[in-house]
Amino acid sequence: MASVPSLASTVQQRLADGLSAALPDAASADPLLRRSDRADFQANGILALAKQLKGNPRELATQVVAAIPENDVLKEIEVSGPGFLNITVTDAAIVRTLAARAADARLGVPFNESAGTTVIDYAQPNVAKEMHVGHLRSAVIGAAMVEILEFTGESVVRRHHIGDWGTQFGMLIQYLIEHPHELDHTAEDGAEVSGEEAMSNLNRLYKASRALFDSDEEFKTRARARVVDLQAGDERTLALWQRFVDESKIYFYSVFDKLDMDIRDADVVGESGYNDMLVETCRILEESGVAVRSEGALCVFFDDVKGPDGNPTPLIVQKSDGGFGYAATDLSAIRDRVQNLKATSLVYVVDARQSLHFKMVFETARRAGWLNEDVKAVQLAFGTVLGKDGKPFKTREGETVRLVDLLDEAVDRATTVVREKAEKVGLTESEIVENGQYVGIGAVKYADLSTSAARDYKFDLDQMVSLNGDTSVYLQYAYARIRSIFGKAGDRTPLAHPELELAPAERALGLHLDQFGEVIAETAAEHAPHKLAAYLYQLASLYTTFYDQCPVIKPEPAQEVAENRLFLCDLTARTLHQGMALLGIRTPERL
């Protein structure tokens, strides 16, 4: 089905027609329409137009209003102040527009006409290392942006740029050669290895190899030689390296499964995936003059990047000893994503503390011609997760919080909240457990996504699983409440009645429902999932007011009124369900 014009676009067209009829010289002028608290919409464009035409803005506004014929969309247009137009639409126009949205599986949300191919780099854990709270935001924000962009019609390629290369692997592999059973599993043959067991093996091996590396010079020498073997592609060394990667994936995937997140093996392309490109990347940069040799290293310099001493701080692509740093890998990844994956947009969901690195990498790629007017790169930079005290989130012992512990505690807290309400709704034990998972993981995701990515936020589980305030649970309960209404509706069904006069709470809810497509477009264009979260919270709040003021079942309203209100309930539920799904959050039918 074709996308449904929003009320805003319909009103915009009516105003544009009035402008061209009243002022033919200004036929292409923009009415500058926006949503308003004073009326349904406000148009401010006549002020700028009056300057251009050297006319009185109020008089011009009056002429434009007079040129708009009576119609079934615009109820009232008031000329206000120096020439603003305050516009109120008819109740019928609201209901008709919503009915068209309801008839569409996509709720009338249009596809982006200029959609292209976006590669999103997110959820980047490190091989042989435990995931901690610092890995949460990249995974949650990235997964939401994948869903949102795909919903708008963008072709999205997921990339998990895991840390699977580097000098520490010499130490790990050498230790495994000398202690060959350290990664053996205790699980019985055929049984799946748990993520916890995989991580336990890796942790034990990492600590033991690090202790030996720090205390035994001969082992340190053997480990460094093993790095050379790894980089040279020695078969035995690569096979052992692969064991570390495979063991780590068992663990990664168990954590992403807890996060209710789909991570596919083909999307995991770590640092090692670009090894074969590094030499050529350096050659291209050096031959084109983008990078130059400085004290033996291959560097890219920038006028606006200087160290504390005032001297230029370069991006080092290749070290003086011939080794490659992160820059070489990141630049090779850009080449691959642009030239092989045909990306028109690159989005990196990476900690804000790496902003300078990515600024230099993107500028280098632009100088090399890999990024240009047709291919953009952006860092979706995110802030830090803080504890309740406003300091970086740590355990009582001062250690970084393990991600699995944090998620398990969220689910435990949420299950307690669900259990308290379970008897009233008649939930079974299996429903309580399942809903506890959905509420707990939803609470963690929503707390992250409802904050602007660039800002730090406090991780406060008590607040996150609260039934009051701007929380995921509040939205999930709003959805479940609507679903319960349909269980009590008997033979009454949702049906739009444009001929009915709407109560203020119905109008407010209807006008907000109509904005869903605009909010999705804005969220996608700005890579700002917090805007969708804010829209959904306001939708649930407006629904709560509607529910309190507009009886749907009891006291029983007239049949047409009941049908129209059920229609508003149904469209609200579908919008909540779709919006929450785009954020990666489940909406249980009963809660």
UniProtKB/TrEMBL annotation:
**Matching CDD domains:** Anticodon_Ia_Arg, ArgRS_core
Q: Which family does it belong to?
A: Belongs to the class-I aminoacyl-tRNA synthetase family.
Q: Which UniProt keywords apply?
A: Aminoacyl-tRNA synthetase, ATP-binding, Cytoplasm, Ligase, Nucleotide-binding, Protein biosynthesis
| Residue interval(s) of motif 'HIGH' region | 125-135
Annotated DALR anticodon binding domain ranges read 475-591
Q: Which SUPFAM superfamilies match?
A: Anticodon-binding domain of a subclass of class I aminoacyl-tRNA synthetases (SSF47323), Arginyl-tRNA synthetase (ArgRS), N-terminal 'additional' domain (SSF55190), Nucleotidylyl transferase (SSF52374)
Give one Pfam family.
Arg_tRNA_synt_N
**One MF annotation (Gene Ontology) recorded for this entry:** arginine-tRNA ligase activity
Q: Which species is listed as the source?
A: Streptomyces flavochromogenes
Q: What's the protein here called?
A: Arginine--tRNA ligase
